[in-house]
Amino acid sequence: MASSTISSSSSFLKPRQRTPLFPAKSLHLPRPRSIRSIAGDLSTSTVSSASTPSAAAAAEKKIAGPVEKDPIRLWHRYVDWLYQHKDLGLYLDVSRIGFTEEFLERMEPRMQSAFLAMRELEKGAIANPDEGRMVGHYWLRNPKLAPNSFLMTQIEQTLDTISKFADDIIGAKIKPPSSPAGRFTQILSVGIGGSALGPQFVAEALAPDNPPLKVRFIDNTDPAGIDHQVAQIGPELASTLVIVISKSGGTPETRNGLLEVQKAFREAGLDFSKQGVAITQENSLLDNTARIEGWLARFPMFDWVGGRTSVMSAVGLLPAALQAWELTLKRCLLVLH
Ligand SMILES: O=P(O)(O)OC[C@H]1O[C@](O)(CO)[C@@H](O)[C@@H]1O
């Protein structure tokens, strides 16, 4: 989501003479609902901010006008208010929602302050005050949007490292030490919640039918589930790349999965460190474990990327690259951007 698109609302939402409220790409399409239910929501939000029942009723009148029934007036309202985003092929008809002009005027300052907050957020404001963090996952899709050159370089260098590592794994320049296949054939992804959803999305939605490395997931702490995955891998454990993903690096469920997998490696007489990869924040427990044990590779998870929005970080892109998603990583970023 580029700043330029957040703030440039005016060309998209009619009427063009009025001050537009909804910017092109910040609109979230509601589920199809009846006009009355939407108008009802508007009334409810007003009621909650009004102090007395009569004040609430008055405010309700101002915000939610009657839904237009007259076909000519409705047509003009439609022409005025049809929202079009030609690039996205998106049309949204808000004309049948019973909002009034006064409602729009009252909302304008609130919307402008929301846009301002969004612009600030994109420029790197601390948007997560509890943890003192920026929120910048969209910089991953276009590093030039990052608020400073350090972050931009960090994103670009990580991309290059992911590309090279994936090429080396697929091209068998980096091999598992004891595999009869002489190359990695499987990925076992260990991580839960936000650290599993991105790789699962990539595997389900983007990977080709027969990727060079097939992927399996340990995404909860169920011992039977973990055993099941390990048993299904069987002798191919010797050619399995284990990617352990945890932003915090300390999630107990993920650590349980890791310990179980490491036990399976020991029992099979395999050296886990030659097949283990960590994706985590620098200096986390997982990062330190991987560094001290000398794992095959470590990739960063930036503190300004939330788990559930991490698919365009190493969390999603390393599995994507290893499954040879047909586009190169940079092209894929371009497409998603
Ligand atoms: O990536 P981490 O730090 O292991 O965190 C995993 C946990 O964090 C979340 O992604 C978000 O809180 C949860 O879904 C999950 O339980």
From TrEMBL:
Pathway: Carbohydrate degradation; glycolysis; D-glyceraldehyde 3-phosphate and glycerone phosphate from D-glucose: step 2/4. It catalyses: alpha-D-glucose 6-phosphate = beta-D-fructose 6-phosphate. One of its GO terms (cellular component) is cytosol. Keywords: Gluconeogenesis, Glycolysis, Isomerase. The keyword ATP-binding does not apply. Pfam families: PGI. One of its GO terms (biological process) is gluconeogenesis. GO terms for molecular function: carbohydrate derivative binding; glucose-6-phosphate isomerase activity; monosaccharide binding. SUPFAM superfamilies: SIS domain. Its EC number is 5.3.1.9. It is an enzyme of class 5 (isomerase). Belongs to the GPI family. This is Glucose-6-phosphate isomerase.
